Fold:
Amino acid sequence: MNRDGIEKLLYSESSDTVKKYLSSCKETDTLHIYTYNYNWDNGFDIPRTIINNAHCSLSTALMMFYLADGFRYLTERNELTDSSEWQDFMSDLFTCIVNDHYKDKSIQFTTPLTKVQLFKLKKILTDSEQILITPIEGKDLNIEI
Structure:
């Protein structure tokens, strides 16, 4: 999908139309660019649609994880007791990422954390969780629309 099409999805279409399109989208680039520009005030329905799409890339999933406050999830997950929409979403996304659900690694990703935050995570993440802080080389699709 071209830039105008993604912009229309972001700003003009109904949530149901967007979810229908994104659930069947086979373009990893479109999913990534849409996610990069998503307004998180609109809730978790559309992000959940994206993470459940078989064409969602690992970079898109990781970006979404950190945009949805993944650092807080990782540092507080043992203390979280109340189930919330955010916590359920983060738990599902975390599980998919560490269980290697997302196969495509063609899009660039750099963890958006400070050196101090990375240091803190390196101390608490297990070996299988290191994927959450490992950069991915590829095409740069962090395009603002």
